[in-house]
Amino acid sequence: MDRFAETARARTGLPLADYDALWQWSVDEPAQFWHTVWDHFDLDTIAHTVDGRQIDDADVLTSADMPGAQWFSNVRLNYVDAVLRHADLPGAAIVGIDEDGTRSEIAWSELPALVRAFADTLTGLGVGTGDVVAAYLPDIPQAVVAFLGTAFVGAIWSGCGQDYAPEGAASRLAQLEPKVLVTATGYRYNGKAIDKTADSDELAALLPELVAHIIVGGQPDETGTSPRRLDYDQVVSGPVAAGAPVAVSFDHPLWVLFSSGTTGKPKGIVHGHGGVVLEHLKAGGLHADLGSGGGDRPPDVFFWQTALSWMMWNFQVAGLLCGARIVCYSGSALYPDADKLWQIVESEHVTYFGTSPGQLQASRKAGLEPGRAHDLSALRTLGSTGSTLAADLFTWVDENVKKDLPISSISGGTDVVSAFAGGSTGVPVVAGELSVRYLGVALESWAPDRTPLIDEVGEMVITAPMPSMPVQFWRDPDQKRYRAAYFEHDWTTASDSGAVWRHGDWVTVTGRGSLVIHGRSDATLNRQGIRMGSADIYEVVEGIDEIAEAFVLGVDGPDGAYWMPLFVTLVPGALLDDALRTRIATEVRARLSPRHVPDEVIEAPGIPHTRTGKKLEVPVTGILAGRADVNIDPKSVDDHGLIDWYAAQGRAHRWG
Fold it and tell me: Which residue pairs, CB below 8 angstroms and at least 24 apart, start in 221-230?
């Protein structure tokens, strides 16, 4: 970051004496800022312009409309080139660790051949630019190779963790009509071997456009059945053709991530090659200070415990863009006990460890003292996301992990596959706060009248485009769903429609420039950073004979607590007993995932709706959280008398 600031001062002639000044310049002069990021990371070495001209500031942002901003429209590049330019580095690029301790690694010198072999197989299968490769995998090195091989040929990647049942995975992946599916035969979790062979086959059967099913740990099928079944090891050990990654436009789709599915089917969120490269180099290389080493500093080792269904998997891969080694872990974070991840941090000499408040809380409750039990001398930064990191956990880390260890509590999302705010090198950490708004992120807290707020709670908004904002939503040619998701809100007017991104968080921007996140202002379920959709849960629960209607909410509580109750109404004659509660939990776990299982199931006298029949998830969530600012117009509700009943449920809940 210091070197970048020096470059910015030399380019602008401005003093840019501290982080606040650097941030202000980055949002006041976005074209100049992002051009400086481009040059800082030498992206001219892996990209070219269509007309052969050198890029200047005028080429960076030719339209700042939201949505529809036009970035580097004259540029051609490929994400994979930005990774493989580090192939001359010594040592491992990717380390894989299974729950049972089995360790594997892929050296930087090995990575190009593996990626090219996977890409060659895709080409042989007829997969090319704009086709989709879907993955149903745990967090293993093979997933990274498959992703890079997909991007190599200009195809589009989309991943889903194997904790999802086939039906839940298909509700996402089937929308994309993938030509190839990559799966694994299973994984270990909580000490048990989880066989996913049958689930993988079931998912493949739900994807009718498949031409091939590539299986990690599987056996090829030579019978000529369709789709072809290929063994991953054979795919990556085949002969490699010469050639470079396909050069694509800056906004060519790199991957599709999915929204939670709160109001229907999960929405496919498409991000482009160039926007992701720029944003992840900025977030990883500047704010997280990840790099390939040099001088007395060894290469960084980046480990964020994650899953393919979570955008942090995509961000973890960004470590490779920075020349860092990444660590993939497949298994439970708490098996056989809460010390599991700390053991990995020590054994792998992790320099940046990313985790969740839940894992830190579990470590504290277990009485762990990781800094005394392990050699954590390599650890330079601890990152946390998924929910608010309580102030007392900052203190616990300082006292029990490492004194004065920088803690980067970050907030962002699937929407931009990055962070809006978090910690940054050289900026003091205050317990319970996110240290800074990230460079290039025009984040403000707004009152209902559009007034920017300081030291007051308001709605988080982004007032200018970011390169990693979605290129589009999948199958949304007129951008209707995209606009509705972020840009159609109470602040939209005829003169500035689409000018402000509303993210759906309550936030305080302090007078020091730091942030405090107070929780979701919408109804998206968000457990440990995994965004989940109520619509998925309704589909399962309301399919049970005894259930008339279901209503699931995610409520933020004190000190990072989270409560996800499921309210149900019953058909006449039905009884909500322990057997039915168990059946509900079993169905949700089997058809979706363990994360979707509610904390408790409560019989309700009714479900409140708008007059048009939409469940009142957002306001009732606020009522259960005890927020005094939630006011519901009785004329807008089909049965306003229910609101008092739900308020009583919130008052009666005991936060653990």
Answer: 227/181, 228/125, 230/121
Measure the CA–CA gap between 466 and 283, rounded to whole angstroms: 12
Percent of the chain with pLDDT over 90: 72
Strands (E), 457-544: 457-462, 472-473, 501-509, 515-520, 525-527, 530-532
For 599-611, letters b (16+ CB in 10 Å) and e give eebbebebbbbee
The CB density around residue 219, as the number of other CB atoms within 10 Å, is 11
* Alpha carbons within 13 A on the beta-carbon side of 454: 5
Question: Residue 389 — very low, low, confident or very high, per pLDDT cuts 50/70/90?
Answer: confident
What end-to-end distance do the CA atoms of the chain give, in Å?
A: 40
Answer for the pair 202, 236: CB distance below 8 angstroms, yes or no: no
Helix (H) or strand (E) holding 201: helix 197-205
Q: Enter the tokens of residue 341.
A: 């991840």
Which candidate, 611, 604, 599, places its Cα nearest to that of 637?
611
Confidence label for 262 from pLDDT (cuts 50, 70 and 90): very low
Q: Among all chains, which residue has been given the structure tokens 């090891």?
A: 233
Handedness of CA 150, 154, 155, 159 (dihedral sign): positive
Torsion angle (degrees, nearest 10) of CA 308, 309, 313, 314: 110
- DSSP H or E run through 275: helix 273-281
pLDDT confidence of 348, banded at 50, 70, 90?
Answer: very high
- How many whole angstroms separate alpha carbon 511 and alpha carbon 489? 27
Cis peptide before 67 (omega within 30 of 0): yes
| Residue reference for tokens 């320099």 | 351
Work out the average pLDDT over 5-19.
Answer: 95
Among the residue ranges 32-36, 476-480, 509-513, 633-637, the one predicted with the least confidence is: 633-637
How far is 57 from 43, CA to CA, in rounded Å? 15
What is the chain's length? 656
pLDDT digits (tens, 9 = 90+) for 284-308: 999 999 999 988 899 999 999 999 9
- Helix runs in 292-429, H state only: 311-321, 340-347, 357-365, 370-373, 391-400
Query: What is the rounded (10 degree) CA torsion for 319, 325, 329, 335?
Result: -110
The pLDDT tens digits of the residues spanning 167-202 come to: 889 989 999 999 999 999 999 999 999 999 999 999
Which residues have a Cβ under 8 Å from the Cβ of 338 and sit 6 or more positions away? 359, 362, 363, 365, 366, 368
Rounded to whole angstroms, the Cα distance separating 395 from 457 reads 24
Which residue shows structure tokens 């209707």? Answer: 480
Q: Give CB contacts under 8 A, 24+ apart, made by 47-55.
A: 47/75, 47/76, 47/77, 47/81, 47/274, 48/75, 48/76, 48/77, 48/247, 49/74, 49/75, 49/76, 50/74, 50/75, 50/76
Number of helices (H), then strands (E), in the chain: 21, 36
Contact 497, 487 (CB under 8 A): yes
Going by C-alpha positions, the residue among 266, 381, 356, 406 that lies closest to residue 560 is 356
The tokens for 1 are 């970051």
Tokens 């904390």, residue located: 599
Cis omega before residue 299 (within 30°)? Answer: no
The pTM of this model reads: 0.84
| Contact of 564 with 553, CB cutoff 8 Å | yes
In 105-177, which ranges are continuous DSSP H helix? Answer: 111-124, 141-152, 166-173
